[in-house]
Structures
1.
Amino acid sequence: MSKIKLGFAGTLAVTSFLLAGCGMQKDAALSINYSNGDSLHSQALPATDWRKEVLYFALTDRFANGNTSNDNGNNNRAGDAKDLGNPMGWHGGDFAGLRQKIESGYFSNLGVTAIWISPVTLQVPAVMAQSGPNSGKYHAGYAAYWTEDFFQVEPHFGNLQDLKDLVNAAHAKGLRVVQDMVLNHAGYEAQLARQKPSWFYKGSCINDQKCSLDGLPDFDQDNSEVKQYLNDSVNYWVSQTGIDGIRMDTIKHVNDSYWPQFFAAGGPGDASKVWTVGEAFTFDPGYINKYLNLGSPSMFDFPLYGALRDSLGKRGSLDGVANVLANTSYSDSSRLTTFLDNHDVRRFMSEGIENGIPFNEQRERLDAALSLQFTVRGTPSVYYGTEIAMQGKGDPYNNPSGQTNREDMNFSAASTSPLVTRIKALSDARRANPALTNGAHKELWRPNGGANLYAFARTLSGEASIVTVVNGSDGTLDLGSLGGISVSGLLSSGSVTELTGRTNTLSVNSSGKLVGTVPARTVLIVKSGGTPPPANCNPTALSGQGSSTSATVNWTAPSGCTVTGYNVYSKGSGSPTYTRLTSTPLSSTATGYTASNLATGSYDFKVTTLTSDGKESAGVEVTGVQVGTPAGLTVHFKKPTAWGGANIHHWNASPTGAVTDSTWPGKTMTAETVGCGWYKYTLPGVSSTNLLFVDPSATTRKTADLSRAKEGWFDGTTNTWSDTQPACDPITTTTKVTFQVTASTTLGQNVFLVGDVTELKAWDTANALSMTPSGCSGSTCTWTSAPIELKSNAGIQFKFIKKSGSSVSWEGGSNRTYTVPATGTASYNGGSWR
């Protein structure tokens, strides 16, 4: 666990996964004597089988700002003001913003059925961070895990009525609400810890449960007053708001003796009135199962998270996933809640990208991981931003703005993200196929060191069996050449139906083997049946025309077969997955369909036929139908060093007439960053075009013919496209620098080096650079790094740290600074530890 250092009453080490901020203020009246916790004010939705739900975690402050008047909270404490440039500060997200997204249909369109929101309670004041990449900025309680008052609403989020309105809006849409709660500890310097000191543990740690976790005031749940206070708090929020579930933070740090009464009939966590999912950050299935046995309806599946991260997330073997799903430590593994991302860990996208995997490939790997997550046992949960392939290296204390796992949600990216339609398709498949939510798990194939292929079935009496095939490799796998996957008794011979609409070549042969090909980094989810009719039973003359907010497709009926109806599908251009628009098939006489209320963008449509035997054709497609006026297409180009400049020559832009084809040798591009060689050009009103780049000083120098349908960066030195802006650093020479510091250590401690540049591990303490001791006198040694190759003339910031296992101690004071010499080798003598 990485540590952070905060500036009040000395230095406090705080685990990064506990989030938020803290501080000191004058004592004020706190809600200590709340009673009548069972008095009902709002009603939850009727009880449900949570295995059938799909959970979405919206970190409230970072999700949506619906009411700017509460952006600064009460604005009576330092650090209360909204500050978008501070990744540890308040960013304006609130209950009103969540409600607006609920009412707009955002969650329903994603296939989500339940929304998990951050804790809602009043937070302790912010303080100034004293180290790390955001030193000198206020660290606020934006994530809401550091409570000041357990019965008051945090004003940055709104008020109690705003929270009730959020829950009511969700229930009106058929969505359940899960509220995050913390019963292990109060916030740093919380007034409650001073007013009721007997309620908290003091002195040295006894274990993880009777211990002040990194300085946080730790409740003694064996104290009858504390037990009643915490029970009353939970009852208050459940009865006042009508929430349907609780996400219980740090459940493993609360005394085990507290939980039986909590989950008992009539208790605050009585599963007949409210569902609970507990967080125990451990990869030990037996430890997690302990809390299922103590009564928690669900627990987060950290072992599966780790296996998915290390396999699909990092090009690893799927054997790890197979091992987790075969584990028998759980009393009922179907009660687990699965996840790929959350606020405590590096995002799935960054796990791969930080290990050299290109963005597009990692997004395909995320697609595959989501597909696997939605088809295994348990309740799937999705962290906000996963649907747009959001990146994030870790918590905001240890990472600069723009690189954290808690960035502001970008809703504009959702309209074109293929993962949005993928999550919806997966959710629809779960809802339509009970075996995926309630079925038993049966392993059919695992890599065992061979092809990175994993297959399993979900079976439920009286329901169709579902088979999922996962290709974790970077190449197409031919199941037949591997001997086929035995599906006897699961799938009948013949064709199969892919439940999310993916085109595939799979079938079951006469030997009961599933054969066909599975593309690289792809998951196929199939059941028996679905043989398409002959290819000539497809519509003809398919065309599409877009307007400001809608698109119309027209077709001619096929000849040579009898059609009983049509289905129409759509997807954002570039997305791999179609979504069906026709909830029931159109009539056999239909020759057109209009899709309304579409966001601006480019769309592909597919129309299929249905025949009297119930079969659906493969369909025909029309692509690139433009809805609305595109803002324009911007392309970037990095010219080779020998080029004198950069022009763009473009033709056949869409929509037709938006721009005129350029004349040779094209139009002049604008230089972006001196020394980096990047240029850009924007074609207004264009969604796609053919193009090439040319050297205006020698027009025989040009790239191959290219095409682009979204913003992109083309590197003329490698002839490759990128969907995101590549790093741009004009410094090319390097200097080898050796770092040295004199420090005293305790038994088991070692000194490491970490800083703000990649070569110094970008403040990642887990991978900090080791140093070697010499010239020791007692516990004091001179610690020296190996020579580190740094960019010449670069200004860097860094610190020395001490590590012992997972414990990290930072130097005091501000970050050390150093300008790397221009050439050769150099050394930095840091003197004594600060």
2.
Amino acid sequence: EDGTYNLFYTPHNPGNYVIKIKFGGQDIPGGDFVVTGTTDLRAGDADKYIRTQTETVTTSQYRPVDFRLPVGGGKLSDITALIRTPTGKFHTPLIDDNQDGTVSIKYQPSEIGLHELDVFYQGQPIAGSPFKFHVDQVQTGYVTAYGPGLSHGVCNESCSFRIVTKDAGSGGLSVAVEGSSKAEIQCKDNKDGTCDVTYWPTAPGEYTITVKFADKHIVGSPFTAKITGLPLSVENRKRSQVMVGNQSEISLRVTEMDIHDLNATIRSPSGVEDVCLLKKLANGSLGISFIPKEIGDHLVNVYRDGKHIKNSPFRIHVGSSEIGDASKVKVFGRGLKEGYANQVNDFTVVTRDAGYGGLSLSIEGPSKADIECHDNEDGSCLVTYRPTEPGIYIVNVKFADKHVPGSPFTVSVGGHGSSRLRESIIRERRAADITHIGSQCELSLKIPGTSSFDMSAYVTSPTGRLENCEIVELDDCNYSIKFIPKEMGVHTVSVKHKDIHIPGSPFEFTVGPILGGGAHKVRASGNGLIRGEVHVTNEFNIYTREAGAGGLAIAVEGPAKAEIDFFDRKDGSCGVAYVCPEPGDYQISIKFNDEHIPESPFNVSIVPPFGDAKKLTIHSLKTKGLDVNRQYTFTVNVNGARGHVDARIIAPSGVEESCTVQDMGDDHYAIRFVPKENGIHWIHVRFNGRDIPDSPFRIVVGQANADPGRVFASGSGLYQGETGQSCEFLIDTTNAGAGALAVTVDGPSKVQLDCREVTEGYRVTFTPTAPGDYLISIKFAGINIAGSPFKCTVGGIGFPTSRGGGGVTTTSSSSYVQRSDGKLTSHTRYDTIERSTSYSSSSRNNNYAIVDASRVRAHGDGLVRAYRNEKATFTVDTRDSGNAMLMVGVFGPKYPCEEVFIKHLGNNQYNVQYTVREKGEYMLIVKWGDQHIPGSPWHIEVV
């Protein structure tokens, strides 16, 4: 649009290429170029190129530029960049991988003026590209500005640049930032003629940065910065996504009347084995549904109760035309360029010529946008979305895990946002009465839809003793959890429904004086903070006992004004009920002493009356003890209702996938899904686009024995520290089972988290660089442990920090994000092993008995033989062998064993299961502490 053009081409073979550029059919002066295409850049050339750039930096009169851009963890080889200078020349910058999901693009300018940077991922522009930046001379005598924040940034992260006023004389300096959202600005005078400016945009879009000196624009002002959406790893983004399976359906030419107890795997020509879905085809035969990724013969194994069915395994052939190719997908429609808030916007995706692959759609922006994908049954689908707020949205369209041409798309959404009405109440909470040893302690909760027969509760004392609690059922699903303490200190109360912790559990309960307190000690939980129905009372609980005295403020904001009721149970807990007169997205804020409690504000979807959806019933849905990568089926009876049934499953990581829905006749539908992760999943079952009653349904995949109520944290690093000094704490996972341990530190500075495995569990250290309060959140199996989050008060002075990548340790991956309130979050995740010890003293720091591995006994077929893709098991008896940690390892001829599970059966006896994928001789090692048990290591031949 400014009279210039960018030309891009991809040579497919090495050799000399002649490029001719014509205008109006005529050759232009200097329009002939000869380019040599090579297969790869030689290492020596690369080193030479880097040295040349480095040398230029030291001698050039222009400031070097360094961009840090999020690319979502793509390979460095997939990322290319090109810079266009003011005179129309094209330069190739250096690209460095920061190992944290971002790349640094470094360039030494040779001209003054406005430059453009194009960044491509797999040949497609990334969000926000091209980026514009202004280059000035190092010493001009004028006020100049430089830095990445003048050209690009990521919303809810800090964007910074520097202003140089040396030798510019006297005058006032003013900075303004205008754009899609209000941005907080901070200026720091460096006392050396420079000033560092930092601003925090909270929504994606274009921002205009005005820098004036003595009421006049400096060179390059106003600047334009493109702010893109948050990286995928950020948890507090407003992102909507949906995945639609475009799978190949192949008949196996065999008839099976009942497929509920069947499961299947498919092995590719390269030997990779994956699960595939089974379904009944229209002709009555058994069929499989899968996404082919390789050309050639595949082997399909169909099992019933672990044994092959008749004629299994089956051989099928996949041709080249069936492999998913994102470059052949066509996307068009007005909804890819512009849209309107609170209206349905649409675009079309055509995949008929692209083979088979999963279609992934996501939309990021100022609000969530409900996405619907409607199959046109002609190889295309119509995608609709409905944002509720105006602004800039990023639309990602992927096919077979790759962006389609043009993706991601930047969409400008206009119109007016939803008018929001707010209702709030404030209640004073007095300090709880001090309890003593021998007195009855009580915790009151309302848990709708439960029965006392399915409830259980136990309390863990400060020294680790477990005792069952008394559960008294009151009226209307109200419960009183009672116990009599025998020790002073902080106790942990675990409350479960059908062996699964209720929302908010485990709870802290202090016997004796309550120390500390504050908003971070308040817990809120209940279905009313997740979902609700219009004109129906929606409820949740708030537990303030450990927070001390203070003001509790509750607000409900949404399309209509809600009615709020408050019930004080006089024991440190209270109940809240609210009724919404209109459906829509509501936000519930809970503050204690003017501070948000953990996870506040809560986003709640209030749905219209269920109508015919109330008629639907669910049958045969297994809710716990499910295995990863195995097909499961449940049925839905519509009981005469007429409409469309669909379902989707949401994994712990947030990945959302559609379930396979098949009409079985007689008002019954079969719904099939394959979980890909361990942890808590949610299954949404909808009728005519609306969730049925009790949807989403919670299911537990993998080890169901992971118990956050048995995890404890201790150490001074949870409560206090000094800048520049290491803060350390211990997480004791003994007897808690195997699960995912997640640690998050939120505070004034980004910290490097290091998690090391020790005998008792995991030792975590971090070093803060700025004083202030840090909140340390510890979750096990996705649930906060008792006392989490902890508040660590750090004193001392601040240290200068680098905004480089979040470090990666050898034990876990760490990353950081910056929130809109300016606080930095560091996060680490660690998949724990199961470890058990017997309780042998009155202290949590157990004195372990003398370890004698020679007394350990092991027996079972898994010590003698194993078969590919089948679980091998054996038992280990460690009674009379002292207290130590059981370690099991299986090492193969090429690869280690993919999975080993250890389960404590009680009385210091363990069951071990392992699965191997390849033939050959394996070595099985079993240690008690650091000593081999008798017979270890075993040599096992796998057939």
3.
Amino acid sequence: MDFAECRSNTYGPACSNSCGHCLNGEQCHHVNGGCRNGCEAGYYLNMCEKECPLGRYGRNCWRRCSKNCNRSCDRKTGVCYGGCRDGWQPPMCNRECDDSNYGRNCSKSCGQCYKGVPCDKITGLCPLGCASGYEGIYCNKPCDHTFYGRNCNLTCSTTCVNQSCNATNGKCLKEKAQANEEKRHNTPVAIGVCFGIVVVLAAAVVVIIVYKRKRRQDQNQLPPHKPKRCMQYENTDLHLSNLNKNKQGAESSARTETDKAYVDLPPDVDIDEKIHQENPYGDMYVNELYCPDFLTKDIGSVIMKKKKAENDGFKREYASLPYGERYSCDIGKLNVNVPKNRFKATFPYDHSRVILRRNAGSADDYINANYLDGNERKNEYIASQGPKESTLADFWEMVCQDKVKQIIMLTNLREGRKLKCHQYWPNLGNKETYGTVSVKSMQEKHYAFYIVRKFQVFQKPMNPFMVTQFHYTTWPDHGVPDPLCLVIFHSNVSHEKSNEDLAPTLVHCSAGIGRTGTYIALDSLYHAGKRSGRVNVAEYVKTMRANRMNMIQTYEQYMTVFLALHEAFKATPDPQATVKFRQRVSQMLKDVPANYSGLRKEYELLRKICPVFTNDDYKLAKQSMPKLRKDAILPLDKYGLYLSSNVPTRGSFINAIVASSYIRDSAFIVTHYPPQEDAVDFLRLITDHESSTVICMDPLNTINSSKFWLPLPSSEKIVSPYKVVNNSSKDNNVKTSVISIHKKGEKSRDVMIAEPKSDPKSQNVNGTSSLRSLVSFALSCPDESPITVVSKDGASMCGVFCAVFNSIQQITMDDNIDVFTTVRQLQTRRPEFCSTQDEYGLIYQTVYDHLIAVSDNVYYNQ
């Protein structure tokens, strides 16, 4: 055969093969099909037959999609599907919003910010408040006609007609004297105009009557109305129509097939199943390469290396892992089993699927779950989708046949508008039957970011057995959890598991692949690292994916495994029984040189692993507080609070953060005493965030600025626009004042102000008594509203108070304690908490004294 004769984009023997997508449509090499000058945009490899992987575009796929695409991008042009993330401009999403715009696709216009300072490109907030003539949280509401000036805080003159004035400078739009003069001259003209209007209206009425009669005649001749068909998206047995009525027609007409996967998703479609496309490298693996182990002590440097260039190392390594349906999953695709799957494209592999043995060999032996090997043993885990209403009996059948003692649930039942999982357990104290399995809910404990439930499970002919469910409730729908929170959750699961329990641990989220894979990798690799001193994240993900498709769905989840392992290996949570804690602290606080004490060593480790933040983590604070002292303690953007009430001349920023207690997320608001000019913002903070209790860390007679917001007993104070009334004051172990905060047009708010009677910093018995009294008072307050904790700088003694409060809650809930982990967790919200050894020692001393006092009370009451 003469290959040279090949034409019309063919090559090979008998010219039987078609050329790929060569640049400019040129003829490929007549023998091997190679493209001499490369590929046209959207294709790569030598023969230009393969489309660019998701996350790449352009000629030979050399270019990366912008990391700011809301999903991925067009393989040819790089235009982002689904638009841009907040703060970035379409179509390429590689330019920040102009100074006048913000939000998704820069589609929202900034308000009128003071001095023309650009609004925040993500939130739209004005850093310095509003310009003259505007008000509102986004400074886009013009002043009412009777007000003017910055934030509309000034009233127009009564000499103005209707008291209306220029919103910027306050000049009357028309003076009353001028208006009277014009009225006298214009009266004859007005009469003529009114007569003309009456004539025009009469003519219009006649025209309307004639038109309506004609329209009724025409309607009688029209054919019957046929409603337009709605487009539908099918998700197994779920049909939803008109899923996104607000999309513009022009936008939908130009979508590619890839984009369609991310538009009009029904609530039941899980982000974990779809978000894999966000990795800009897509699926780049060709041949699987072995990734070497690394030592657990080196994990910090490994993370630093992979984080360079905006996490480029994590993105590349994640993209190199085998992805997609790699083994047969024919059973899950059978028509009889399709309705049992929560998602259309997530099936269990046939070779590792869980078979319901009671129904083995029949169509009823199917459940969407797989066995996964751990580093300890085979089939150490079951990875499952979240149960559907139609699969509840199958789920509990699986629990019983494998004698599962622990269930790890990593999704809420509903997140936003999305149904993620059907409730498969009875409410506390109730009993339900699922198929042949009876389940009774025996216990339920709520913590800050998870819930622990205990069930008694019974199926004939087995004896009843206990199953514990650990339900992580704060995993963000479109993100990843805080690594330390995940480590603490995992540690509590591990402490509950008996060494004799060889049953598989059942782990599920919604699809059973993303969050589920993240948790299983953390658990398996942590135990492997403790045993051998080395781990291999990439190879273990390959192991998981060999038994269940696509375990770990995003590079962010992949990175979270590294970050969580780092936190776990730096210092493992170690809760101690209260009896052991008392013995340990008694020894720790003995009079030995401070530099050699156990307390000193523990404190030094705490400082060593304290999180370090960059300027980017305080971006909003630095924009809102341009004149900063070098020693100023700033709120992290991630945990900062904002003011929503509208007060003239005041912005939305305040130096305050939110922190969690042992049993409630967002339990504390932490801030500093306000100077006179910020007293109104302090009252806004309390009312906007509905705080009913304020704990002051100093006697207020030593805080001069307190007189600007706290009136004397039985008196009141105006802090415009608020009136503060001090209704009562008591002086027991803690000095308390009950104040009412009033604002015109709003319901008043009663707030309890508590202050110590003496300086709580002292470590002698009387000194800890003052701090313990403050904490005991706060513990007795209602749980519904956050507690505002205040000190001179918003950190000193605030961290001590929160740590003692959380430690006593832990003792009450679980009869154990871990001061080190409690403080460590608080420092993720504000690293300046407990920043001295004296404060750290005061926590130990106070909790120790609390335990002694409690045991003495028990003894005396016997």
4.
Amino acid sequence: MRLSRFLGLVLTVSSTSLSYSIDKLSKRDEETAPNDCKAIESLWKQKYSVANCCNIRGDNYQYITCENGRITEMVLSDNQLTGEIPSTIGNLTNLRILLLSGNQLTGTIPSTIGNLENLQELYLNSNKLTGSIPSEIGKLTKLIWLYLDSNQLTGSIPSTIGNLTNLQHSALAWNKLTGKIPSEIGNLHELYEIWLNSNQLEGSIPSTIGNLKKLVWLHLDKNRLTGTIPSEIGNLSALQYLYLDDNQLTGEIPSTIRKLTNLKYLYLNFNQLTGEIPSAIGKLKNLQELWLNSNKLKGTIPSVIGNLSNLKVLILCDNQLTGEIPSTIGKLTNMQRLILAWNKLTGKIPSEIGKLSSLRDIWLNNNQLKGSIPSTIGNLSSLQHSYFMENQLSGKIPSTIGKLSLLQDIFLEDNQLTGEIPSEIGNLTNLKYLYLNNNQLTGKIPSTIEKMSELIILDLSNNNLSGPIPDVENLTNFTTFDVSYNCIDCENIKDKSLQNGNEITCSGSVQKNKCELRCGRSWGSCPEGQCCSKEGFCGTTSSYCSHNKKCQRKYVKCVYTQKQQQQQKRDNKECDVINKLLKKDPSYNCCSDTEIECSNGHIIKIYIQGKYIYDSIPPELGNLSNLEELKVHGCYLTGSIPSSLGNLSNLKNLNFEQNILEGAIPPELGNLVNLENLKISRNYITGSIPPELGNLSNLEKLNLSENHLTGSIPSSLGNLSKLKQLFLYQNVLNGTIPHEFGNLLNLEELDLSNNYLTGPIPSELGNLSKLKTIRLINNNLSGTIPKEIKKKNIKLYTYNNPLLNDKSSNIFIVIT
């Protein structure tokens, strides 16, 4: 996941000038600037009733500073200001800092802003500004910070921006800018970061970009850029973060990329790049994330990939790669996500893959891999998600898979696996999804699955399994148990297992404790009063589940049932929404899909995981009024979360984790008062956390981590009295930790790491008797660790908070 930190830099880099001003405020109480104050009174008078604007002191460091009868600094961010920026702002010719971000300002940026010849810092980001960027902005030759991002600006980037030769920080992202990137951008030799992403920019990347030798951050992603990646990009010797993804770039990856030896993040995914992955990529020893997915790359994965010892994320899926997975991949011991799916890879899964002890996700599905699954997979102690389906894997499922205690899903369907299902699989008590269908497995279903309390879906269909079905009535999360097309004895299935909401399924149907006769050419006719279905079963209706044709038993397993009857009913409008999302035929009965659960013809649960959807969430999902569960995980969902989802009043679980969603979290989600789990982690969500989430009185788990969220943590989250887990780590959040968190009496885990949080650790956290773990790593917290926390048996992680004075180790774990 990329780390978007630029808003945090506003706080850290600008802190010198801001604190300098605050220290001197008391000395300036007598200052007046009547003309300047009048020029901007339409802004400051909205919130402050003082007669002299030089006396403005807000609660959150808002202020106006005056010197010698002139305004020099105007900091009115996050102040709910409305209306337009007056053209008279151009009269403030002594202004050095203009910070109006995080308001609701509308209208255009006045051209008179070009009169502010002393301006060094300009922040108009996170408003509702429209129109074009005035060319007069090129007159601000002293400008160091230029943030116009997160507005609704249109038009092209003026070429006069090339006059800003002192510019170090520039963000024009998340607007509607069009046209080409001006070649004059190459004049900005002091530039440290530039954010042009999430616009509608066209044309090629100018070769002059290679002049920016001090550039560390380059964001050109999510535009409409065409042409090749200029070889001059190799001149950016200081570059650490390069994002060119989600454009229409063509040609090969330039070999000059080898010169970017400081590069940490390389995103070239979702383009039309061709050729092979250059071996030069092996020179990037500092690389942590490499995203090349969804291009047209061919050839093999170069063995030099093993040189990237710091690599944590390798995503090469959805290309045309061939050859074997190099054994050198075993050197990448820091790897957390390995996604090689949807290629044409052959050969065996290298046993060296077992050395990746930090691996959380492995996606090798939809290739042409052969051979057995290496037993070394049992060494992947951090593994949570595994996808091996639609290959040609053979041999037995290794018993070592039972050692993967954190595993949540296993997808092994559509292979050629043989042997029995290892009984050790019952050790996977966190497993939720187990797909072993469409293989050649034999033997009994292990009774140890009775211990898998988190299991939601178990699909064993289309194998050669025999024997009884284990007792699964205690698996309260169960929704689907598919054992169709096997040789299973069904006499032991008890009706009571259906009474608590469990659905023991055969070919998607609920077992009703009934076995039926085979019929047809090999079996003869049915008894009087019954007909023979096209699948070869006797019954009073023609809709029966099929049976494994290799199984020569007269009495077989389940047939037409209540759920099958329900599936004949369907709400056409509801299915239209799902069929649109899954790109199914409009006539498709979505209620027959294993990923959809219906009741009385209405959709109540959606579980979609690991599918390549690459499309936006249809707003019509908000019309599924009976929906209780909505999970679309790891499916490349794009666009924003529609506000219409706030209409799903029965929703209990909402999970959009591991997609490529952007935009803000709609405040309408605060209407989902029955919600128990809200998980939107590992996306590209921007904006602030809506305070309306504090209305979710039944929420137990909230995970918004690994996004681009900004602003402060709303104190209203302290209202979530049932909350057990709160994960907001790896965002760009600032401000203090709310004291109201002391009200979260059921909280067990709190992770706010990798943000820009300031101030002390609230002592109120010591009141939380159920709290086991607090992670506050990589922030700017100050003060000491409260004694109320020291008395508790809490794991507290606080390292890399340079202003935190307390180095005590009296707590169970304190890492400072």
